[in-house]
Amino acid sequence: MINARRRIAMAVATCAALAATAGVASAEDQDFGHVAPADVLLDRRTVDIKWKLNPFYSKSVRFPSAGFYECPITAITVKDLRPNGDSGRVTLAAGGVGEKFTELKFKPHQLRGASYRVDIYVNPNCAA
């Protein structure tokens, strides 16, 4: 009896998670800010997320990992590296364009992994 209840609860949770993620659009390629001709690529990182059963799983990544950049960020580009562009959603959690750091929140689709390339651009002629 307990195992049957547990299986039913798990099936209901799985159905709810699938329904919640059904209408989520693909992240595909996202840009925050605009890359100007004078801007230079300061940081490039690949963010890989293994698949999880948990529908509420997300991963936050800070750029730089610690401290701050010398110049404010002028643009952030996020490229979905999965061939069909279905890695999930990316949102700006903190900092960003005009700041000297940023934190991005990656929310992959349930039962799928995610892979992104994040590029951070700055203008080297800033008055730090």
Shape: elongated
Give the helix proportion (percent range). Answer: 10-25%
Structural class: alpha+beta
The side-by-side strand order for the widest beta sheet comes to 1-4-7-2
Radius of gyration: 18 Å
Q: Give the amount of beta strand, in percent.
A: 35-45%
One letter per element, helices H and strands E, the order comes to HEEEEEEE
| Annotation field: number of helices | 1
Residue runs with pLDDT of under 50 for 5 or more positions: 10-27
Biggest beta sheet attributes: 4 strands, antiparallel
Number of domains: 1
Number of strands: 7
Q: What can you tell me about this protein's structure?
A:
The chain is α+β, with helices and mostly antiparallel strands. The chain has one domain (26-122). The chain has one helix and seven strands. The strands form two sheets. The chain has a four-stranded antiparallel sheet, with no helix packed on it. Strands 3-6-5 form a three-stranded antiparallel sheet, with no helix packed on it. Strand 5 (88-95) and strand 6 (102-108) form a beta hairpin. The longest helix is centred in the N-terminal third of the chain and has 21 residues, at 2-22. The chain starts with a helix and ends in a 6-residue tail after the last strand. The model is unreliable at 10-27 (pLDDT under 50).
